[in-house]
Amino acid sequence: METDVGPVSAGAPGRLGRVALVVEDDEDIRALIVYTLETQGFEVFAVGSGLEGVAAVRDRKPDLITLDLGLPGIDGIEACRRIREISDAYVVMITARDDEIDRLLGLETGADDFIAKPFSARELKARVNAMFRRPRTVGGVPRPDASTQDAHEILTHGPLRVDVESRRAFRTDEELVLTRTEFDLLTELMRAPARVWSREALLRSVWGTDWASDTHLVEVHVGNLRRKLAAGTDGSTRFIRTVRGVGYRMELPD
Ligand code: CA
Fold it and tell me: For a designed S-S bond to 95, which of 18, 54, 100, 132 qualifies (C-beta 3.0 to 4.6 A apart)?
């Protein structure tokens, strides 16, 4: 474990593996997370406050960040907001209690996943594995049009366009700034635009889990994605329709 966050390796151009940053002020929990991630092959950096966390994101460019909610100085929510301005890493927010997750889901934290203390190393491992499976999964659904000659999968839906390989999304010519989770969610929906997706199916496809209690996570990220897809329009533009009692599907705005 390393705690210095000097600028020496900013950008880490030659790095080989995945980098994780642990932002946690409780030493025992920090040690558990660091150990768990190291056994999963991450190069792990750890810091004990939100401000150090933001600085370390800038310097280390992590692929994964675990972020404690209760931190000295700026809290996890504020740290996440600042991190989101400079990084699209997967963020797992760690909360002290289960019931905090409901409150957090009501906020636009920018976190990709939430986990409540106490959690086991096994649980953390499962969540992290699920997250890193995502960019490569297609939710068990065969890619309909990704031929071997053309690895460049482009999905379109009205004015929306998703370039799957370069992980860029556009509305008409405007590039959308999406988090990884939002991008994965949009890609999944656009691969089968006529399908009505249940929250559970999206959870399996996008998050790679089927913890039924996490369907709130889907609702929150769909809400955030919707806002971003409609940003700058008159606000009535909807691309994702809620199918009452079932889930979601894509729709074309009028
Ligand atoms: Ca704490």
Answer: 100
Q: Residue 95 Cα, ligand 1 centroid: separation in angstroms?
A: 8
d(CA 70, CA 246) in angstroms, rounded, equals: 35
- Pick one of 3.40.50.2300, 3.50.50.60, 3.40.50.2000, 3.10.450.50 as the CATH number of 3-119: 3.40.50.2300
At residue 4, the pLDDT reads 46
Which are the contacts of 116, defined by CB distance < 8 A and separation ≥ 6? 94, 95, 96, 97, 98, 100, 101
User: pLDDT per residue over 80-119, tens digit each?
Assistant: 999 999 998 899 999 887 778 777 776 778 888 888 888 8
The CATH number of the structural domain formed by 146-250 is 1.10.10.10
Cα-to-centroid distance, 201 and ligand 1 (Å): 33
